[in-house]
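Methods — Computational structure assignment.
A single polypeptide chain was analysed. Its primary sequence is given first, followed by the predicted tertiary structure written as structure tokens.
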Amino acid sequence: MNTPVSRRERLAWAAIPLILIGLVAMFVTIGSLGGPRAELQRIDVRDVLATADPAAEYGLQELQLVGWYASLTDDCMAHPDEPSEAAWLERTCPLRLLLPEQPATGATQAALEGIGLRLAAPSGEPFPPRPQPGGWHLLLEELVVTGHFDDPAAVGCDVRLAGTCRNTFVVTDTDGLLH
């Protein structure tokens, strides 16, 4: 039994898709008003290590750095004696580095620290997970990390570590492996 559909009902059902199309068009238009986000500057870690003061060179500018990731816990030692407001930035255990070359397995933590760029994050979350606790954690390919230097928290670092804190690359994201 077919009941006749009034003209008003047909118009209402026809208007629903038109309203949805209009809403989608409005959202697309509003979303594009800000313009596209400028691409992040991708820099090889060698270039950053060549600068004497990365914090002065790049400041808070968001960057993508490319290099070999290493997380080391071999020579962990607790410091400083009194934790500061920026303890996450001063922390060296685990020591996270971005290196210009894949490190040799026999290299010491001190040697790697001398040739690598220190990495830190307030939560520690953006770093690749460790396959096993303790020891070395090396990736077999280069990693792209996003972040900045000269984090505002560096002003809370111990005076003896102020330069180290300012020149530590604060990681906000890892974009995965390059290859």
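Note: The chain has a mean pLDDT of 79.
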